[in-house]
Amino acid sequence: MPSRLAHPQALDDLLLYRMNRALQVAGGMVIRLCEGRFGITRREWRVIGALVQEPGLLSSQLAERAQLDRARTSRAITSLVAKKLVRRATGTGDRRQASVALTDAGHALYGELFPLVREINQSLLTALPDADVALLDTALAALQQRAETLMAQAELPKADRHRGGRGRTATG
């Protein structure tokens, strides 16, 4: 029997759609933890996670690492600074170049939240045998690499999320 993923016939057979559905359900648990218990958004969580791995990034570098656009990254940084979880230090030569790092409170929040998020991830993986988890890890790395290659080669118009898409017109 051919794989639904290899030969999709409907929306429910598409890889990206199925991955998104799993992310929406499981990711919802992470969002509830972030917002409900820790008072941060999922974007702020991504910024905090990136800063744990690479402290002192410039905001533009942080946007790239967190895979957010610069405007959303800037808003997340501003919010995290207000919450005293992140500090911003401007350079002496160019005040627009600001490095960003976690405060002690930011590190403490990460230390509390990461084990909870890790538990959600590990609990999801219990649905698979260990050998399949290893295979999934390899497959995800290959899919990420392929997606990056496709994106670099693609000649696609930029999305206009405010108007529902680029080039669409309303018809009667």
Cα distance spanning the termini? 44 Å
The topology string of helices and strands comes to HHEHHEEHH
What's the total number of strands?
3
Write down the overall geometry.
Answer: globular
CATH classification class of the domain at 11-128 = Mainly Alpha
Number of helices, where a helix is a run of at least 4 consecutive DSSP H or I residues: 6
Query: How would a textbook summarize the main sheet?
Result: 3 strands, antiparallel
The percentage helix is 55-70%
If you consult CATH, what is the topology of the domain at 11-128? Answer: Arc Repressor Mutant, subunit A
What is the structural class? mainly alpha
Rg (CA only): 20 Å
Low-pLDDT regions: none
How large is the share of residues in beta strands?
Answer: 5-15%
Strand numbers in spatial order across the main sheet: 1-3-2
Q: Kindly state the mean pLDDT as a whole number?
A: 89
In CATH, the homologous superfamily of the domain at 11-128 goes by the name: Winged helix-like DNA-binding domain superfamily/Winged helix DNA-binding domain
Describe this structure in words.
This protein has 172 residues and is mainly alpha-helical. The protein has a domain at 11-128: Winged helix-like DNA-binding domain superfamily/Winged helix DNA-binding domain (Arc Repressor Mutant, subunit A), CATH 1.10.10.10. Helix content is 60%, strand content 7%. It is built from six helices and three strands. A three-stranded antiparallel sheet has the order 1-3-2. Helix 1 crosses helix 5 and helix 3 packs across helix 4 (70-82). Residues 12-145 form the HTH marR-type domain. Pfam families: MarR_2.
